[in-house]
Fold these 3 entries.
Entry 1:
Amino acid sequence: MEDDIETVLWSSDEISKRVIELADQLNHDLSASSTQLPVFVGVATGAFVFLADLVRRISLPVSVDFVRVSSYGFGTLSNGSPSISSDLKLDVIDKHVVLVEDIVDTGNTLSKLIEYLKSKGASSVSVCTFLDKPSRRKVSIELVGKGKFYGGFECPDKFVVGYGMDFAEVYRNLPYVGILKPRCYQGIKEERPKN
């Protein structure tokens, strides 16, 4: 797998340090803002490693759940039409939700998820994303209630894998984040956003 990586962007040590910083920010903000237990909702499957590392650093009692959204298939670009394919199990009515994402790209998936959590009755929604690609943003992100946006690293406009992120369900187990060599996905039909 390592031969498929063009460049390592963030090592496991750099990732660990940044996760601790994000958890410290969340601990401070969550302890100051609410008496209710927050619900951390991971976006499956890409955020599972980040979510696990993050919640182990949260010093408050929390609940954890997952939601699954489909938008990539086996291409390198989102199809632009995310759909929720696996519902929450926990009740989030009147609760503060911290939505944990692996990467925010166009913002389409994130916007859909925020609206979904709002429709489920969440009193506020914060977003904690491991990677952020603001250069690719197509929609503005509107948080709910007293929600805040927490970003780990700003990501270049490259296709990245590792630390839970994949290409065609491979590379999730790399302990770092790297740029995937184009030869690994060239010839794969890319899913283009629908007009």
Note: Residues 189-195 have pLDDT under 50 and may be disordered.
Entry 2:
Amino acid sequence: MTPTRVIAALALSAAALSTLAACSTEDEMKAVDPAASGEPTSSASPDGAPDPVPDGEVRTSGLVTVLDDGSGPQLCLGAVAESYPPQCGGPAVVDFEWGDVGFEEAAGTKWGSYALTGTYDGTEFAVTDAIPAALYDTMGEPTDDPLAAACDDATTTDTQKATPEDMDATLAAASALPGYATAWLSGNTINVAVTEDPEGAESTLRETWGGMLCVTTVEKTDADLNAINTELQAELGDRLLTSGSFRPDSLDAQVVFDDGSIQDWADETWGDGLVTVTSALVPAT
């Protein structure tokens, strides 16, 4: 497998994991009095994940698609099908004006990218401010590279043993290692994660690879993470927008809204830090 095919396979694997969630139950939460504390409210049942609802204004964490296929505007916080016109769905959007710029129309569908501020009751998003993509400054948004190197001290031992064929052989050898978890490329560095004996793994891989190599130890294999991801999707249901393993030994999950209670629940369920929860809607202040 060439480096290009490896990266494509890794990207496809990540995309396959980033799925829309199925319906599920909710979990019991401590009651919160928004009038007394100003904190978001949460509802839950005894055997599932919390279902927080924001109290007060929220904003989208960056640009999102607003789409109206004739049934009214919807806020597409999750995946958007790359058709023409695009296809997506989400909470109904009320008090929204398309404005003079920022949207397209085709086949009876109108859509555009906006940064929205408003209130969300768990069903509808009531807009108080809408900034079209053409007027939105994205310079301050953080970026993350899921294919970054796992260590800063990767070294080269033999530049003559770093051909594409050597890379293919090394990745094949990595998949046969005891405790193999995953492997990925960052530039010309081969990154391999194992659950045991990293020194032995590196020694084995150096038999075929003299280029940049980084071997790290993790607790969970890809199979372990896939199993947890399936549980996560079942528990969170349509509150979960995307989820998948984009970094070794961890899962990333984006939900419609989290006040911290879903993150706390995930930490209690699978251990601190294994699942990182991000919220598509965040407090406006």
Note: The chain is about 20% helix and 30% strand.
Entry 3:
Amino acid sequence: MERISAGPHHTGYKIGDLTVTSLRDGYVDMPVRRLRQPGDKPFGDDLPSQVPLFDGALRLSVNAFAIDDGEEITLIDTGSSNAWHPTMGFLPQALSEARIAVDRIRTVAFTHTHLDHIHGLILADGRAGFPQLSRLLVPRAELDMFRSVARLGRFHDQSEPLDPGQRPSANIEAVAASGHEIGHTCFRVTSGGETLLVWGDLVHVPSLQFERPDITWEFDADQERARATRLRILALAADNAWCIAGAHLDSPGVGRISRTETGFRFEPL
């Protein structure tokens, strides 16, 4: 992968014949207690020193990813719009900065249905974020969860189930990665002999969870499964020399994984 553009809210890459753009929706500060040690024990004063804090809180970037095949654009996740913290909701600015016309986004696919991934379907003023949207893919196990979100009611009938192995486009394949949520899904993007894995919320705190993949997150729906899935996907990416793209890795959230003696290491691209 080669970086081809960058700005405060976006970074563009070339992968084979595709353009992949990391879009920064913003960030959210979370309390340290959200991290969980084995045995579901929260961190306190024992938080490792390499983890940066901002006024005592963990800062998580919030990233979405656009995949452009030259004809249409598939958007993976949409950020939070104005549904959560005011430090988020900058996806429209990121798209404009990257010179991505929203009318070219015909497919939106979700890694899962937590609010910081789905509410960008609607702009803060209530208008549709993607006027030409023709496919809205939601992991099958979370379809009812999505259809229970009242604010997104206009999209309930449009949403379609997404299954592992399904291809939203010729270059994108859905990969099962449950644990953080019941239907949590990664997307394997391939072109020109290169692979990028867009992995959603596999890692929340990169300064800790690569070295200690056994550490989980309070909002992981199934702590044990989330831990096992993280270990499996990290090994898969490292052993196959795939690039990865994470929703909560420090923006732009794209890089490579390598093994260490005790865990893994993330190297930004």
Note: The mean pLDDT is 97.
